[in-house]
């Protein structure tokens, strides 16, 4: 199942013995490839989720994410020590996603209702039937959310994902997108209004 914007799980360094991003990036700048590998492992899943939610097919999303990390690595010397890594990473990633859309304008292929219906097992009694119905309802809800999200203008979708999926604040979002605070708030509001209206219709 493709990730959908229904939960938030922002990664933050906690007091759990994990090294801070800054320490890892300092080590990576000094040539420690293992330190950079830890950074990639820490953020790869979130970066891939963002690219997928931006409407890229999985293969292209994986390519965009890999390209973003390559660009991060190449530009480590330009990253200011002490600065927040997360907005920098997502600025590079968002730019790569926008470039990918501008090149080919592809959109995610949606699963048909027939494919969803085909996932319901035959037989198995009432309990199995109830489980199948619940799975079907969940699949349909995810499908509706996906269609509503994909119908948003790219800038609104990007702002919505950064705010409500990646849990970034508006000041971080301005650094990522280059847009002003009021413009970003308007994009998020319009995205929320559109998504709510589309889902309520259905």
Provide keyphrases for this structure:
single chain, 202 residues, mainly alpha, Rna Polymerase Sigma Factor, Chain: A, 2 domains
Give an overview in words.
The chain is mainly alpha-helical and 202 residues long. It contains nine helices and no strands. The chain folds into two domains: 98 residues, RNA polymerase sigma factor, region 2, helix turn helix motif (Rna Polymerase Sigma Factor, Chain: A), CATH 1.10.1740.10; 72 residues, Arc Repressor Mutant, subunit A, CATH 1.10.10. Helix 3 packs across helix 4. The protein is globular. The N terminus is likely disordered.
Topology:
Elements lengths: L20 H9 L3 H21 L4 H17 L10 H20 L8 H5 L7 H26 L3 H12 L4 H8 L3 H21 L1
Give a concise summary.
The protein is mainly α and about 200 residues long. It has helices at about 20-30, 35-55, 60-75, 85-105, 115, 125-150, 155-165, 170-175, 180-200. The two termini are about 20 Å apart.
Give the name of the CATH architecture of the largest domain.
Orthogonal Bundle
Instruction: Determine the N-to-C terminus distance.
Output: 21 Å
Question: In the CATH hierarchy, what is the class of the largest domain?
Answer: Mainly Alpha
CATH homologous superfamily placement of the largest domain: RNA polymerase sigma factor, region 2, helix turn helix motif
H/I helix tally? 9
How many beta-strand runs?
A: 0
Q: Could you tell me the strand content as a percent range? A: under 5%
- Uncertain spans, ≥5 residues at pLDDT below 50? 1-16, 105-123
Alpha carbon gyration radius:
19 Å
Q: Could you report the average pLDDT, rounded to the nearest whole number?
A: 79
Instruction: Tell me the structural class.
Output: mainly alpha
Number of domains: 2
Question: What characterizes the major β-sheet?
Answer: none
**Structural shape:** globular
Secondary-structure element order, as H and E? HHHHHHHHH
CATH topology of the largest domain: Rna Polymerase Sigma Factor, Chain: A
Helix content: 55-70%
């Amino acid at each position: 199942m493709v990730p959908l914007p229904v939960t938030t799980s922002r990664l933050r360094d906690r007091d759990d013995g994990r090294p801070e991003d800054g320490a890892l990036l300092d080590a990576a700048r000094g040539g420690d490839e293992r330190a950079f590998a830890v950074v990639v492992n820490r953020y790869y899943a979130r970066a891939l989720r963002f690219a997928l939610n931006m409407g890229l097919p999985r293969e292209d999303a994986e390519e965009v994410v890999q390209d973003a990390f390559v660009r991060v690595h190449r530009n480590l010397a330009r990253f200011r020590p002490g600065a927040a890594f997360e907005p920098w990473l997502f600025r590079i990633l968002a730019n790569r996603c926008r470039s990918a859309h501008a090149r080919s304008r592809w959109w995610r292929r949606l699963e048909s209702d027939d494919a969803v219906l085909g996932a319901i097992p035959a037989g198995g009694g009432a309990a199995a039937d109830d489980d199948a119905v619940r799975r079907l309802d969940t699949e349909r809800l995810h499908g509706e959310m996906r269609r509503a999200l994909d119908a948003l203008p790219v800038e609104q979708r990007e702002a919505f994902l950064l705010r409500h999926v990646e849990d970034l604040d508006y000041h971080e979002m301005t650094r990522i997108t280059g847009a002003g605070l009021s413009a970003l708030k308007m994009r998020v509001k319009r995205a929320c209004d559109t998504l709510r209206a589309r889902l309520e219709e259905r």
